[in-house]
């Protein structure tokens, strides 16, 4: 089926108390594995490309791959731009067929962030494309952007309320104590802040830094209103390790398609486990009734 807008997908997830898994693809096979996992679980899925991936492959290749994969699939899939900072890249994603984009102007002062985000919302809404935006600096490394502990800061709920009141967002990304990448210690997730922001904004929250969080933390975040959970670092490790481990276990096997097949299965297993963990299994039908 055609790719779908993020907004009704997350609105349905928030209303039913589960989260949609959002994965950052690395190539055509990882995209295909994401959709295959969602099909096997009858679940919605978000495929979110980083700016680095777009710069590597180009807009056309990524969107055409995704359209081809989604065309014969019965599940709702969103093609989303993750952490868009360059307006020209965001605009081109909208023009080329992405069905959701993220404007990340969180490194700017609040009013400038609001101004830049509004510009993207206006452009995207006219094209029936969803928008995610962010307030606060999320710790860690994402797409070669480094936010140190000194630079990171939690989202101000007063700013969050004004931001979401003035912008028609599909998802709101808040800095609530999670971090991009693997955690070096116990993450200090601000559950009370998540609850307050969701109560005051009534906008589906996107949880960045999902890799490495315990299931207890994940479930509590979902219960408090997180409707989109991002997984990137976990996939990078599975992508590399599955390839390396296959060759280590079968050093004389130089048939590339068998190696790629093992890698594909490892990625699909990861995607299925996260979709089930976040509560997305058997939710495709409900979402389709909202996007039809």
Commentary on this structure:
This protein is of the alpha/beta class and 292 residues long. It has a single domain, classed as TIM Barrel, CATH 3.20.20.70. 51% of the residues lie in helices and 17% in strands. The chain is built from twelve helices and eleven strands. The chain has helices at residues 6-16, 28-41, 51-57, 59-71, 87-96, 110-126, 157-166, 191-201, 215-223, 233-249, 256-277, 284-291, and strands at 20-23, 45-49, 77-84, 100-103, 130-135, 139-142, 145-147, 171-174, 179-180, 205-207, 226-231. The strands form two sheets. The protein has an eight-stranded parallel barrel with strand order 1-2-3-4-5-8-10-11, surrounded by eleven helices. Strands 7-6-9 form a three-stranded mixed beta sheet, with no helix packed on it. A hairpin with a 2-residue loop joins strand 6 and strand 7 (145-147). Helix 1 packs across helix 12 (284-291), helix 2 (28-41) packs parallel to helix 4 and helix 7 packs parallel to helix 8 (191-201). The radius of gyration is 18 Å and the shape is globular.
Short description, anyone?
This protein has 292 residues and is an alpha/beta fold.
């Amino acid at each position: 089926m055609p790719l779908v807008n993020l907004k009704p997908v997350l609105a349905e997830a928030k209303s039913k108390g589960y989260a949609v898994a959002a994965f950052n693809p690395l190539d055509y096979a990882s995209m295909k594995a994401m959709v295959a996992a969602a099909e096997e679980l009858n679940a919605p899925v978000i495929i979110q490309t980083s700016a680095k991936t777009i710069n590597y492959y180009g807009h056309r290749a990524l969107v055409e791959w995704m359209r081809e994969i989604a065309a014969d699939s019965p599940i709702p899939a969103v093609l989303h731009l993750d952490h868009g900072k360059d307006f020209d890249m965001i605009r081109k994603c909208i023009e080329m067929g992405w069905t959701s984009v993220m404007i990340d102007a969180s490194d700017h002062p609040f009013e400038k962030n609001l101004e830049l985000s509004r510009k993207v919302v206006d452009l995207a809404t006219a094209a029936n494309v969803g928008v995610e935006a962010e307030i606060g600096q999320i710790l860690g490394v994402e797409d070669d952007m480094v936010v140190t502990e000194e630079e990171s800061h939690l989202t101000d709920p007063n700013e969050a309320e004004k931001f979401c009141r003035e912008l028609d967002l599909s998802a709101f990304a808040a800095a609530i104590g999670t971090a991009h990448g693997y955690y070096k210690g116990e993450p200090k997730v601000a559950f009370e802040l998540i609850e307050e922001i969701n109560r005051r904004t009534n906008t589906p929250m996107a949880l960045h830094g999902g890799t490495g969080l315990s299931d207890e933390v994940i479930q509590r975040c979902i219960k408090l209103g997180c409707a989109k959970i991002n997984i990137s670092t976990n996939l990078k490790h599975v992508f590399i390790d599955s390839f390396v481990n296959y060759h280590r276990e079968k050093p004389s096997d130089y048939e590339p398609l068998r190696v790629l097949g093992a890698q594909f299965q490892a990625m699909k297993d990861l995607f299925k486990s996260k979709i089930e963990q976040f509560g997305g299994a058997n939710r495709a039908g409900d979402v389709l009734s909202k996007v039809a």
